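Task: fold both queries, return C-alpha cells.
Query 1:
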Amino acid sequence: MKSSIKYLPVEKQEDLKYLVSMVLERIPQTEMIILYGSYATGKYVDRDSRVEFGIRTTYMSDYDILVVTSDAKDKDVGHKLDNIEDIYYKDPDKQTPVQFINDSIHKFNRDLLEGRYFYTQVKQEGVKLYDSGRFKLARRRKLRYDEIKQQAEEYFKERFQSATEFFETAEFTYGKEYNKKTAFNLHQTCENLFYAVRLVFTLDNGKQHNLTKLLASVRKYSNEFEKIFPRKTEEEKRLFNLVKAAYVEARYNPDFVVTKEDIDTIVPMINQLFRVVKELCEMRMLEYEGMSMMNIYSREKCRFTLSTMNEKDDPEMIIRRFLFSHKYHYRLNVKALPGKKDIVISKHQTVIFMNDCFWFGHDTCNGFVMPKTRTEWWKSRILKNKDWDHKYIEKLLKQGWRVASIWECDLAPEKREYTLNCLLDFLEKDLQTNLYTIPETEQQVADPDKNYEQNKE
C-alpha cells in the first residue's frame, strides 16, 4: 500500500496531517489511518461550481478516511471521530469535507482475507497516512464454495431489502402524486436490484448509478433483462431514459416531468425485475451450495457428475461429434434463449438439453443414488432443478422451438447407438413432435467401439 501523499497540493497535505494528528491524540488505540476513495486515486474534484437547471450547485470530493483500531469499542471510536469532524470544520463552505469510518484491525484483516470487495479495494488503492507497525494486513485467499455462498446471501439480502424499501417509498410518494420523487425511488430500486445480481455473481461491485451501464453489466447472466427493458421503439427508449435520468433530474431539475401514466407503465417492469432478480440470484446461490456439498463426496459417490468423465465420454461431446458427422451446424449455450440449453440447431429450430442423471434425479436410472447425508436438502435441490428445466422448456415451446431432452445414461455404450438414431429420426423425420425424450427400449444393440464420425467426409 502506498504511503506518500506528495502528489496532493500542499494545502490538502496539511489538512490530512492535521486530521491524523487529531485522531492519534484522541484515539491512542489507532493502528492505521488509511486514505481511500478519490483523494487516494487522484481522481478527486477540488471544487466544481456550476449552474444546472437554473440552480447553482457546488461539489467537492470528500477526504475518505478509514481509522483502524485495536482493543477499542467501535461505538466509542465513532463518537470521538464525530467530535474530530466538529473541530475540523471552521469554514465548512470552503473546506474539503471529511468522512470517517472505523473498524477493528481483526475485522479489517478478516474482511481482507475473505476478499470483501470494499476492503480489498481500500487495500489496493488506499494510502497509509499512519501505521503503528504492530500489525500486517492480510492477503486475500481463495474462498471455499460455502464461503462464497455465505457472502452472496449476505449481499443479496442487503441489496434486495434496500430495493424493496425504495419501492415501498415509491408506492407512498405515488399515492401522494409526488411523481418526481416516485421516479427517483424507482431508479434506486433498479440500481439496488442490479447491484444484487452483480454481487451474487461476482462478490464485487463498483459504485455506479448509470442504469444503462448497470443493465449492460448484468444482461450476460440472463436475457430476461433485455425483455424487461426493451429499447426498440422510441417510447420504450423514452421510458427507460426517464428512469435513468431521474437519479439527478428528479432532485435538481424543476422542469423534469414525470406523468402518472409514465409511472403506471414503468411499475410493472420493475415488478418483473424483482421476480427475475430473485429467481436468478436464488438459482446462483443454490449452485454455490451444490458445489460446496459436492466437496463432501468422493469421486466414486459423485460418478454421475461430468467432472468424473473425460472429454471423449462426455455426453455433450458425444452428441456434438455425432451432429458434426451428419452435417448439422449447431451453437452452444445461446444466451438469447431461456434456460441453460446445451446445443442449439437454429436451422431446424431445435434445442437439445443434456440432463445430468445426478443433478436432475433420474429415478429410472439404475446408477442414481440419493445421498444419505442431508437427504432432504438434496431432494429439494434436485426438485428445483427439475422445476427450472420444465419452466425453460415451456418457454422454448411457446416460442416455437422443438426440444429434445437426453439423459446422460442414454449415451452409455450399450444404449448409445439407439439414442443417436432416435435423435436423428427426431431431427429428420418426426417433424410433428415438439418435445422429445428418448423412448425406453429392451433392444440394446450398440457397439461401444463403433465410429460415429464415419460420415464426416
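Query 1 returned. Query 2:
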Amino acid sequence: MLAALLLGSVGGAYLALLRLAGEQAEYGIDACGNAAREVIGVSFRLADPRQRLPYLAKRGRNRVFQSAEALWHLAGRRDLGMIGRYSASVRDCSAGGIRLGGSAY
C-alpha cells in the first residue's frame, strides 16, 4: 500500500490523485461503457484540515450545498428532488427539470 500523501487542500488532492491515476494506474476498467483507470489503496491527509472543502471562485463557497451535494452523489442519486432544495440553479442543468443526466455517479 502507498504511504498517505500529505497535501494542502482538497483541490490539490484532486489534482494529485488525477495525476497519480494518469501516470501510475494499476488497473484499467470499463464500467457501464466508461473507461477509467484505478489506483487501489490510496489515501491522503490534509496539512490544514480547514481546507477540506473545495473552493472555486466562480461557484463561491456554500458549505451547506457542498455537503448536500456530496451526500447526493454518494447516494447515487440523479433526481433533483433533494438537491434542488439546496440550489435552485441546479435545475437549469436539467433538460426536463426532473433529473440530471450524466451526473458524477
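Both queries returned. Flag for query 2: The chain has a mean pLDDT of 79.
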